Amino acid sequence: MPDLLSRAELHHATTREQYLEFHSGMGEMGLRQTITRDAKVWKLPTGMYLGMNLATPFNLLDLKINALAVKITGYPSKLTLTH
To answer: What is the distance of C-alpha 39 from the center of its chain?
Structure first.
């Protein structure tokens, strides 16, 4: 799968712990909130994630991200995946 950029919004998240759990889950899927180049690290804007060389197809990644959001908040995320 090519590299991708994702924008995910959690609905009805009310605690910092919910966001931290979501960020951790996204990281486990290979989606990062930073870009590293030439030993420099840049933080992406809030809600943006970068996936490099992911093996998961787009449609399955969409389902996994929404399942994670539902697990944390009870609602799917508002999600955009682009490559």
So the answer is: 23
What gap in Å lies between CA 21 and CA 18, rounded to an integer? Answer: 5
Nearest to 26 by CA among 47, 1, 55, 53: 47
CA 19 vs CA 1, 49, 81: distances in Å: 27, 13, 19
Q: Over the stretch 18-72, which tens digit does the pLDDT of each residue have?
A: 999 999 999 999 999 999 999 999 999 999 999 998 988 989 999 999 999 999 9
Cα-trace Rg, the chain:
12
pLDDT-derived band at 2 (thresholds 50, 70, 90) equals: low
Find, among 54, 33, 31, 57, the residue nearest to 43 by Cα. 33
> Cα angle vertex 13, ends 17, 32, to 5°?
65
